[in-house]
Amino acid sequence: MKNTLYQKDIVSIKDLTRDQILTILKLAEKLKKKPASNLLNNKIIAHCFFEASTRTRLSFETATIKLGGKVIGFADPENISTKKGESLADTIQVINSYSDLIVIRHPKDGAARLAAEISDKPVINAGDGANQHPTQALLDLFTIQECQKKLAGINIALVGDLKYGRTVHSLVEACALFDIRFFLVAPESLTLPPQLWNLLKANNIKFSFHQSLDEIISKIDILYMTRLQRERLDKTEQQAQNSQHILVPALLTKAKANLKILHPLPRVDEIDPTIDKSPFAYYFQQAANAVWLRQALLTLLLNRSLS
Ligand code: CP
After folding, report:
1. Catalytic residue status for 169
2. Ligand 1 centre distance from Cα of residue 55 (Å)
């Protein structure tokens, strides 16, 4: 079968069809069950991290090295020539000539799209401002499918900063391609942007807004917690910190037995650490899944055909 992901840019979830998403999840599952070692032989992956990252950068790096590829790049924009005034466009143009694929994280919305327009190699958006984080959404779907054994028919609560949380924006777009029902729990000033409500409506996906975790906890299969993106809040929005939802063990007494708690991490104070050892906690397994999912994605983008 033709690999329609070969040499593709992954800037937004909208760049992918439902079938392409399922292909990525299927290969990730296969690689997790039976790890491979040579699918990225002779490939050089450039990591351009203009913003802090632990999981995304290091899981891409682990994924690449374990598949026989090599990594170049930077984790701190203070140490590259943008400090001397070089533009993002020129930086990408040059790195494009050194590598087979570019992974970029940038604080500005749209930076990854610009990089994809300049580069003739595949570009993966590893998070641009408050906009998108498509590979996190793919790994979230992979993890939901793993812990619930299905995607269709799932009830998921998205909790926290739904306005600036880019992982939420990508996850909503991804889930809109499946039959997933949303409960949106956020301080009023940090609710989901209206363009995403419209997307859900257009896809006939059910969703509702809530101010309390307690009123929905018994109905959900996935509790997706997020941190407040404090670095992006304006002065009025900072007051939302007072109405932030904190997950404590008492709130889980009415949870369904199959409930799993996910979080893209980093966690700040929105999940009480005593929950980490409960059977509901699945966020560290989710972070570990990043390696398999990113291996699958890199493999599909860089190999015309797979035997
Ligand atoms: N989930 C996520 O994007 O984590 P990092 O910011 O540590 O990469």
Report:
1. no
2. 5
Please enumerate, as own/partner, the contacts of 150-154 that have beta carbons within 8 Å and a separation of 24 or more. 151/175, 151/178, 151/179, 151/180, 152/178, 152/179, 152/180, 153/179, 153/180, 154/178, 154/180, 154/181, 154/221, 154/222
pLDDT tens column, 79-97 = 999 999 999 999 999 999 9
From 155-164, 182-191, 235-244, the region with the lowest mean pLDDT: 235-244
Q: Are residues 59 and 203 in the same domain?
A: no
Distance CA 10, CA 123 (A): 6
Report the relative pairing of strands 181-185 and 207-210 from DSSP bridges.
parallel
Q: For residue 63, which of 93, 105, 31, 24 has the smallest C-alpha distance?
A: 31
> Biggest alpha carbon distance in the chain?
56
Residue range of the domain that includes 279: 134-287
Packing angle between helix 194-202 and helix 166-175, nearest 10 degrees?
Answer: 10
Q: What is the pLDDT of residue 235?
A: 79
Cα(133) to ligand 1 centroid in Å equals 9
- Percentage of the residues of the chain whose pLDDT score is greater than 90: 91
- In this predicted structure, what is the pLDDT of residue 236? 80
- Pick the residue whose CA is nearest to atom 5 on ligand 1: 53
4 assigned to some structural domain: no
pLDDT of residue 286: 98
Query: Does residue 307 sit within a domain?
Result: no
